[in-house]
UniProtKB/TrEMBL annotation, chain A:
Pfam families attached to this UniProt entry: MFS_1 (PF07690)
InterPro entries: MFS (IPR011701), MFS_dom (IPR020846), MFS_trans_sf (IPR036259), Proton-linked_MCT (IPR050327)
PANTHER family recorded: MAJOR FACILITATOR SUPERFAMILY (MFS) PROFILE DOMAIN-CONTAINING PROTEIN-RELATED (PTHR11360:SF317), MONOCARBOXYLATE TRANSPORTER (PTHR11360)
Keywords: Membrane, Transmembrane, Transmembrane helix
Domain Major facilitator superfamily (MFS) profile, first and last residues per copy: 1-448
UniProt keyword Transmembrane helix present: yes
Organism, scientific name: Geodermatophilus poikilotrophus
Cellular component, GO, one term: plasma membrane
GO MF assignments: transmembrane transporter activity
Protein name as catalogued: Nitrate/nitrite transporter NarK
The keyword Transmembrane helix belongs to this UniProt entry's keyword annotation: yes
Localization of this protein: Cell membrane
Topology of the protein relative to the lipid bilayer: Multi-pass membrane protein
UniProt cross-references to Gene3D superfamilies, sorted A to Z: MFS general substrate transporter like domains
TrEMBL record, chain B:
Protein name according to UniProt: Oxalate:formate antiporter
Sorted UniProt keywords: Membrane, Transmembrane, Transmembrane helix
Ranges annotated as spanning the membrane: 16-35
Keyword Transmembrane helix included in the entry's annotation: yes
Lineage, opening ranks: Bacteria, Bacillati, Actinomycetota, Actinomycetes, Geodermatophilales
Domain of life, per lineage: Bacteria
Amino acid sequence: MAVPSFLARERIVARPGFNRWLIPPAALAVHLCIGQAYATSVYKTALVEHFDTSLTAIGIIFSIAIVMLGVSAALFGTWVDRNGPRAAMFTSAVFWVTGFLVGGLGIETGQLWLLYLGYGVLGGIGLGIGYISPVSTLIKWFPDRPGLATGMAIMGFGGGALIASPLSRQLMNYYDPAYDGTAGTVPNGEAVAALFFTLAAVYLVFMMFGAFIVRVPANDWRPAGFDPASVKKKALVTTESVSANNAIKTPQFWLLWTVLFCNVTAGIGILEQAAPMIQDFFRNGETSTVAAATAAGFVGLLSLFNMGGRFVWSSTSDYIGRKPIYMVYLGVGIVLYVVLATLGSTATWIFVLTAAIIISFYGGGFATIPAYLRDLFGTYQVGAIHGRLLTAWSAAGVAGPLIINGVLDTQGTPGQLVAANYRPALFIMVGLLAIGFIANLLVRPVASKWYEPQATTPATARANPERSAAR
Amino acid sequence: MSHPVRDDRQSTHTPGALIAFAWTLVGVPLAYGLYNTVKAASQLFGG
């Protein structure tokens, strides 16, 4: 599928002397917008009241969006790699913004299915394309620090929620003065619809700015002082190229799929239940020693560690290596989950510190995976490979809440649960992390039979993307 | 569809002001989000 010439990859090849530090803000402009997906809880109750429906019926909107994220990233990854980041960011912006407009229309007219179609399906496609759009470009601009580069962008996804939550509250307060953002007050449907339309306009400007300034490096471009041969010296790092169609035939791809799935499922276990969980862990009879406001503070702290972990741990992986850092995420994660399950209710600081580090590993796992893929499969179609791997996120987005909610349903009634009721779910997460740890341990360099022929330059490969697919 | 290919041999210079503007544009909302989240998280220690 051809794209208009102003979006074409050939139009955005940077000339010598271009400063690569313009690329991270381009990536952030997209990820800070699509990160809004993690801030949907601010208007969840309002939508339940507006549509007079269940929490589950509203929660499905987010689930559809995450499933569509994985599906679209997997389906359009090769298209993104072939047409470049400007076309991808532009397309992502169109879908993401249209999703808000259609969703807002659904709220305005009281038609829930339009919200499913708009925010869920169209927005989800925007999420998937937007999430992978700058990743391979950043890896190519920062071959010397791929973990730092992808960490910056994917940190933006975490940061997007930090921005959208308070901004949404303030905007809904503006559109419905009766709503003041505190517990107990709920904005009306018109205010949520107006919020959707406003966010659509703001996100359109930001994402188009990113699409406008993004550039791809020329094929022979290298950062000053960088020797490509130096990366070859590191274990598991290849300078060869593996196509997306071949990558999914390798055990390495499925081992990393398992690693991501286990790491994300375990993290979601805490994120899903964060506020009620801290109150339940310190429940004394009918009441908890942790107030609702304190629980909200805990959720805020987790958001900070989620975002910070993406940048800090992914950057660290440039120094200690991708496989070792996942051994930390998963191995130390196991220990922390055991501590949480057994000692978490003895002191608030133990609970908070343990959960915060676990969530930083959750964020780190997301941010480091593109660099891990680049190490194993090369830069050739790393965006498309990353897109296909994100189906693990979609699967974890379904499995994580199912596990935690399923276990808690068998343990008692919400509002009366205590720390012991969480133990079965937490130990299931320990088991999942152990599986992920073993999968990571089994990762070896990709067999040479999957490498693209040396004569294939990135330029010719882009012109013939399907050439290697039949191998 | 064929696209005009840019001559990538010509040298360019990225203005420092453009880089500063781009970072400010993404940095200001991020700082706003961080401030509000730290404020919310502080209830954990103050409450």
